């Protein structure tokens, strides 16, 4: 999955500078040697195509698109970004890319409010499914059925019969498409009718989606993260909402390893479909014609070439040119009926709402629908954070996460019942804790000011801070508030307080998002924390991206 500007187009422009400093991971499709025309992040060669694609497209990009580019003699530079970043860059008028390839039209609409993309075409289809371990789906009575209604799934989720995960809909396409599928259901809409602003404002939708979201056990910020963590923590993740094609990919790995597969059910009555739109972004210069021709050839290849279609089907992608979601002579090793995969789905996908309604719904997820969170940040303020530029990254990230105007750009606004605590550590707790209850913009900006005013120094003992976090979050929480610890460090920690910290965190039963920055952190220490708490380990040298990702766990 990330978007925002119908009425906020001006706001995006204000943050173009932020978008431009994002790390760009370019992959050369035909050669590792850049063409002579390439300057900075943009390759202006008429034989080069610069594509920004959703992380969901990684497998297709690596196995189908890059080999095609190489055969054709084109230089294809493919940057993988989350939905939020894609939409932000598009809305900001970023000129580093010739084409945008979203996972679904939900975030494409949010980013392309100015109608800049041209010749946008759906490349393939994949439905969002309710998936779970085979034994769990059998227990729920969904295995082997082709008629599981969305109401049946809702009953299982809200009754607590299963521990279910979904990605944060403000950060990921799979979560957003699931969100709008259920909103359509609560609004009483059939597949062909889009959710309206009036329906969004109605009590049935407001109350229904709030109950649904609060029933989620975890809401990771990306589809890939959800899938990998769910497989790693089968006791905590029993079912999930995700893409059909990712279930197919994961099941092929699980079965090969002799492990229990996942089984899917299609939410009948409100089926959401990811449509993978790929469109051209003009630069209004002499290079447009040649680059547009390359993109047109690529689109035709993916849509019409038999070999490409065969490869897409092997990856579990349904052809955009087929009749609905029906497959002719499917390979049952891929579209496996034993996994609940149905080759024939005679159901129209839901109609997605207009961009302003999408924007409003995602804003409300952050400030109204989701469970409030008590988040405790432990930030490394040791001396090494000065020399490696880490503290500048922390300050930039604080501006993005805590300042509410910037947080709105990233759909990371604070909830009125959130509690945010920030502590800085070196050899011990050296600054803070600074705590803000609620979402008062001035109070949260005060955290940014405190971080900006801190000067790194001293050694590294993260466990002292983590013990304080665990002790605080062990206390009874009101307002159905869940807990989250975000740790960032660039070094190996002293271990004098390790046992106390782990005990406190386990007692609190809160996940730790452990972010490793630079080349010196002890990955084993951070992975231990993530594993012991049901959290996640992140290796990331772009601290703005890392802390935004951590905040996305809300």
Any overview of this molecule?
By secondary structure, the chain is of the alpha/beta class. Helices cover 42% and strands 17% of the residues. The chain contains 23 helices and 19 strands. Strands 7, 8, 9, 10, 11 and 13 form a 6-stranded mixed β-sheet that branches. Helix 4 runs parallel beside helix 5 and helix 17 runs antiparallel to helix 19. Residues 1-40 have low confidence and may be disordered.
Ordered list of secondary-structure elements with their pairings:
Layout: H1 9-14, H2 16-20, E1 38-39, E2 42-43, E3 48-54, H3 58-72, E4 75-81, H4 83-91, E5 99-101, H5 105-111, E6 118-122, E7 124-133, H6 134-140, H7 150-158, E8 164-165, H8 173-187, H9 197-200, H10 203-214, H11 223-232, E9 239-243, H12 244-256, E10 262-265, E11 273-274, E12 277-280, H13 288-304, H14 306-314, E13 318-319, H15 355-369, E14 373-380, H16 384-387, H17 390-402, H18 404-409, E15 419-425, E16 429-437, H19 441-452, H20 462-473, E17 482-489, H21 498-508, E18 512-516, H22 523-533, E19 536-539, H23 543-551
Parallel strand pairs: 3-4, 3-5, 8-9, 14-15, 14-17, 17-18, 18-19
Antiparallel strand pairs: 1-2, 5-12, 6-12, 7-9, 7-10, 7-11, 7-13, 15-16
Helix pairs in contact: 4-5, 8-10, 13-14, 17-19, 17-23, 20-21
């Amino acid at each position: 999955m990330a978007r925002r500007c119908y009425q906020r187009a001006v706001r995006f422009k204000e943050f173009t500078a932020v978008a431009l400093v994002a790390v760009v991971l370019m992959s050369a499709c035909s050669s590792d040697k850049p063409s002579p025309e390439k300057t900075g992040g943009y390759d202006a060669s008429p034989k080069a195509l610069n594509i920004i694609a959703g992380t969901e497209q990684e497998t297709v990009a690596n196995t189908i698109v890059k080999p095609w580019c190489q055969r054709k003699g084109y230089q294809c530079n493919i940057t993988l970004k989350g939905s939020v970043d894609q939409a932000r860059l598009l809305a900001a008028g970023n000129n580093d890319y010739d084409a945008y390839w979203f996972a679904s039209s939900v975030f494409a609409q949010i980013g392309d409010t100015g109608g800049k993309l041209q010749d946008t075409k759906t490349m393939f289809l994949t439905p969002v499914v309710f998936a779970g371990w085979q034994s769990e789906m059998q227990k729920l009575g969904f295995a082997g059925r082709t008629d599981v209604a969305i109401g049946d799934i809702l009953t299982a989720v809200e009754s607590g019969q299963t521990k279910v995960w979904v990605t944060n809909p403000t950060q990921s396409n799979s979560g957003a498409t699931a969100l709008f599928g259920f909103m359509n259901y609560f609004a009483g809409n059939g597949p062909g009718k889009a959710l309206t602003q009036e329906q969004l404002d109605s009590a049935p939708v407001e109350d229904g989606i709030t109950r649904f979201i609060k029933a989620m056990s975890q809401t990771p910020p990306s589809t890939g993260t959800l899938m990998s963590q769910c497989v790693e923590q089968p006791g905590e993740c029993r079912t999930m909402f995700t893409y059909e094609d990712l279930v197919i990919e994961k099941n092929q790995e699980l079965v090969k390893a002799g492990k229990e597969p996942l089984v899917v059910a299609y939410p009948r009555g409100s089926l959401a479909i990811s449509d993978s739109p790929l469109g051209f972004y003009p630069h209004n210069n002499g290079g447009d014609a040649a680059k547009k021709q390359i993109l047109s050839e690529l689109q035709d290849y993916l849509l019409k070439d038999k070999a490409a279609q065969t490869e897409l089907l092997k990856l579990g992608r349904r052809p955009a040119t087929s009749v609905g979601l029906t497959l002719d002579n499917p390979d049952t090793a891929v579209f496996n009926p034993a996994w609940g995969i149905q080759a024939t789905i005679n159901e129209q996908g839901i109609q997605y709402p207009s961009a302003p309604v999408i924007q409003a719904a995602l804003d409300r997820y952050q400030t109204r629908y989701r469970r409030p969170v008590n988040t405790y940040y432990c930030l490394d303020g040791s001396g090494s954070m000065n020399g490696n530029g880490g503290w500048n990254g922390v300050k930039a990230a604080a501006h993005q996460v805590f300042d509410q105007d910037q947080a709105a750009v990233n759909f990371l606004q604070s909830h009125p019942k959130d509690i945010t605590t920030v502590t800085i550590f070196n050899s011990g707790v050296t600054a803070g804790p600074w705590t803000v209850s609620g979402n008062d913009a001035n109070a949260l900006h005060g955290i940014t000011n405190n971080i900006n005013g801190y000067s790194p120094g001293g050694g590294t003992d993260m466990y002292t801070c983590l013990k304080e976090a665990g002790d605080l979050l062990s206390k009874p929480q009101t307002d159905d508030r869940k807990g989250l610890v975000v740790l960032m460090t660039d070094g190996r920690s002293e271990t004098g307080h390790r046992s106390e910290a782990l005990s406190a965190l386990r007692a609190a039963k809160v996940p730790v998002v452990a972010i490793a920055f630079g080349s010196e952190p002890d990955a084993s220490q951070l992975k231990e924390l993530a594993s012991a708490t049901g959290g996640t380990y992140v290796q990331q040298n772009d601290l703005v991206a890392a802390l935004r990702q951590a905040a996305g766990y809300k």
